[in-house]
Amino acid sequence: MQARAMQLAAQGLLNAPKRRARREDLLAAIQRMRLLQIDSIHVVARSPYLVLHARMGSYPQTWLDEALEAGRIAECWAHEACFVTAAEIGVHRAWRSQIASNHWADKHAARARDANLKEMHALLEHVRQSGPVRASDFERTGRAASGWWEWKPEKRWLEAWFASGELMVTRRERFQRVYDLAENVLAKLDPPFDADVSALRRRFILDSVRALGIARARWIADYFRLKPAVDERELAPLLADGELLEVEVKGWSDPGYVHRDHASLLDEARRGRLRATHTALLSPFDPLVWDRVRLREMFDFDYSIECYLPAAKRKYGYYVLPLLHRGRLIGRLDAKAHRAEGEFEVKALFLEDGVELSPRTLKEVAQAIADTAAWHGTPRVRLGRCRPAGVASVLRAHWRG
């Protein structure tokens, strides 16, 4: 399906990298996606690193941390907590300064200010006088508070100031945020961006369509969590201005939309010339899969992340990675990297019904798992349950060979 191929191409997942990764590829990948969601779960590599690995292949994870400290990327609230390029941070700060947000982070921040405004201002003054801080710089006193991940008060206050924009993340140390005054972090970045709400919303709509390659109207709002939802009436002026192109897609009852920057990609798709060849393990927070409705409609793949469920209610496992193979999502695996032992454990591998289990498919799946394991520094792969069971011996033979 060429619509799928367009989305994969726009996301940088149509074909495997043709050369070794370079530092500039990291910024290019984030710019192509428009954002890179942050999540701290690290049974395998933390999500942002894994998202980049699916697009860049093997690269040093320190590149992301160094880009943040150097001011080439920044952290903000976008889809959720995300990295964006330095050129985009002003857009996001302008947006959040002008909208009335119902995001959970803003609600927590408001509660924190209501209950502890004096202490929060004292903390802000401490940063102003003493410089960047981490939450771990403050000792926990008393019992852990419930809610907001049972953070200690200073962590909640730092996050509240981050949510409201007074603090930003200047770097990370062992993935811990290091907070500084926004004015100090912004000095490393591009100048602030100024536009009204309607212009900013228009920009986010266009950026969403560009990042998705091709989109139905109802998919657009989720990418940057826009409210209200985007509809065809709102897209009509963008079509009239030539910013978007409208296309018919077989099997869709409503139009597809393509950004004008992808006009040549659309032409290739119409000629049937987009060929997906990439095999990769995807993060649960990859932009390709985070919208479960879009994922089901575009790739016919039902997926949910189960790490937030009690173990007894999990169907596939704690941290399950979708498996992309040549334009299809053909399965999922529950993985854990045992770094001290150098072992990459595939607790369970589930291939979708109807997947062609050809020697080439199994070889490419085995190689993608092996490549991901090696990048983790856990080159020995151990496979547990497998469905269908018969492929387990083939995969193990590849890893032994």
From TrEMBL:
Q: Which domain of life is it from?
A: Bacteria
Q: Which InterPro entries match?
A: AlkZ-like
Name the PANTHER family on file: CYTOPLASMIC PROTEIN
Instruction: Output this protein's name.
Output: YcaQ family DNA glycosylase
